[in-house]
Amino acid sequence: VQLQESGPGLVKPSQTLSLTCTVSGGSITADYYYWSWIRQPPGKGLGWMGAMTGSGSTYYSPSLKSRTSISRDTSKNQFTLHLSSVTPEDTAVYYCARGDRLPTTGTWDEYDYWGQGTQVTVSS
């Protein structure tokens, strides 16, 4: 299974950030898996943002729920993160990943596959 993030590297404050994860070697509609978005701000640890299951159910971090949504295009085997009203505090490396449960510890061992990450900077 391979995951690849894509999207803009620079976003202005107050805009909506959209990042897409393209999955190969496995279907995003398969039962049992959670397809997550995670981020790591500079100098900080991993932060789980949200996930979508194979059936399309979504789960979000309480701290980001009001600004986050995840959608998918099953025909392209892609899922997309939308983060609204971004601020410089949203500057981070963003990753997509697959796991078999909802993350709770914020560590990489909760995922079995992940992308290489994409740097997003929020600046005017």
What report would you give on this structure?
- By secondary structure, the protein is mainly beta.
- 0% of the residues lie in helices and 48% in strands.
- Strands 2, 4, 5, 6, 9, 10 and 11 form a seven-stranded mixed beta sheet that branches. A four-stranded antiparallel beta sheet has the order 1-3-8-7, with no helix packed on it.
- A hairpin with a 4-residue loop joins strand 5 (47-53) and strand 6.
- It is globular, with a radius of gyration of 13 Å.
- The mean pLDDT is 96.
For the termini, the CA-CA separation is 36 Å
Average pLDDT metric: 96
Shape assignment: globular
Low-confidence segments: none
Q: In which range does the helix fraction lie? A: under 10%
Would you report the number of β strands? 11
Please work out how many helical segments DSSP would assign.
0
Strand fraction: over 45%
In terms of quaternary structure, what is this?
single chain
- Specify the biggest β-sheet: 7 strands, mixed
In brief:
By secondary structure, the chain is mainly β. The protein has strands at residues 2-6, 10-11, 17-24, 34-40, 47-53, 58-60, 68-73, 78-83, 92-99, 113-114, 118-122.
List strands and helices in order, with pairings.
Elements: E1 2-6, E2 10-11, E3 17-24, E4 34-40, E5 47-53, E6 58-60, E7 68-73, E8 78-83, E9 92-99, E10 113-114, E11 118-122
Parallel strand pairs: 2-11
Antiparallel strand pairs: 1-3, 3-8, 4-5, 4-9, 5-6, 7-8, 9-10, 9-11
